[in-house]
Amino acid sequence: MNSVIETIMSHRSIRQFKDERISNERITSIIKAAQMAPSSRFMQTYSIIGITNPLIKKELGKITGLTYVENNGHFLLFCADLHRLTIMATDKEKQNMQEMLESTQFYQIATIDASLAAQNAALAAESMGLGVVYIGAIAKGLPEIDKLLNIPSHVIPLFGMAIGSPDQQPEIKPRLPLEAVYFENQYNTNMDEQQELIEGYDQKMKAYYETRSENQRADTWSGKNIALFQKKADAHFSHYVKEKRMNLL
Fold first, then answer.
1. Angle at CA 154, nearest 5°, toward 159 and 56?
2. SS3 of 110, please?
3. What gap in Å lies between CA 85 and CA 209, rounded to an integer?
4. Dist CA 32 CA 120 (whole Å)
5. Which residue of 17, 63, 100, 246 has the smallest Cβ count within 10 Å?
6. Sequence-distant (≥ 6) Cβ neighbours of residue 158 within 8 angstroms
7. How many CB atoms lie within 10 A of CB 20?
8. Contact 175, 204 (CB under 8 A)
9. How far is residue 205's CA from residue 96's CA, in Å, rounded to a whole number?
10. What is d(CA 234, CA 21) in angstroms, rounded to the nearest whole number?
11. How far apart are CA 122 and CA 109, in angstroms?
12. What H or E segment, with its residue span, contains residue 159?
């Protein structure tokens, strides 16, 4: 196992950071690493907003309800960005581009581009001994974030990433069995096999949740997700995306 794989395999979400600023040199290296991620048709349909203003970080902390959004070494916001593709277009060309800009196809491409860039950034940060945690809770206040950060049409904040010097060492969460996520040549629809794998994994996760050093609880992977997906979907997110003129077609 080489050092890159060792870094990947030791990943854990860090939610407590030391009060230490990350140098500009390190941030630049992290962003440049993010930029080296693959991109569909080399469109590079993402943007990264670094939040350095303490007042903005505090506001983002309020929106998400997470203290570590405010208290970290650096905060990054990853956005799906089709706006940049229109900058050099004439008014007529922009009009002709609308159907593609509003399509589900290119919304998905931009989302994938941003996700690949983010994972490169996370790996680069962790290779420096820093810790990271992805922040999906920005979805709680996308219209507010939109105004706060002056985000134009065809740009959607997808998730944040808090980075910093770790002030905790949580246990690594067990992942699903390889056989539950990796199939060869066709999807494994054998329900008996899949249930056996997931039942075994549920027991591992139950033991993990009950014995981990922080936030202990009685739960399983299946139970947690079945409960989640029985809730009502948040219509505000879909409405926001459509207002940004993306994922319409």
1. 45
2. helix
3. 45
4. 9
5. 100
6. 78, 79, 80, 111, 114, 115
7. 12
8. no
9. 51
10. 35
11. 20
12. strand 155-164
**pTM score:** 0.95
Q: What whole-number distance in Å separates Cα of residue 103 and Cα of residue 249?
A: 4
CA angle centred on 147, ends 63 and 106, rounded to 5°: 95
Q: Residues of 172-203 as b/e, b for ≥16 C-beta within 10 angstroms?
A: eeeeeeeebeeeeeeeeeeeeeeeebbeebbe
| Per-residue 3-state assignment (H helix, E strand, C coil) for 46-89 | EEEEEECCHHHHHHHHHHHCCHHHHCCCEEEEEEEECHHHHCCC
Residue 201 near residue 176, CB atoms below 8 Å: yes
Tens of pLDDT, residue by residue over 95-125, are 999 999 999 999 999 999 999 999 999 999 9
pLDDT value at residue 189: 97
pLDDT digits 0-9 by tens, 18-72: 999 999 999 999 999 999 999 999 999 999 999 999 999 999 999 999 999 999 9
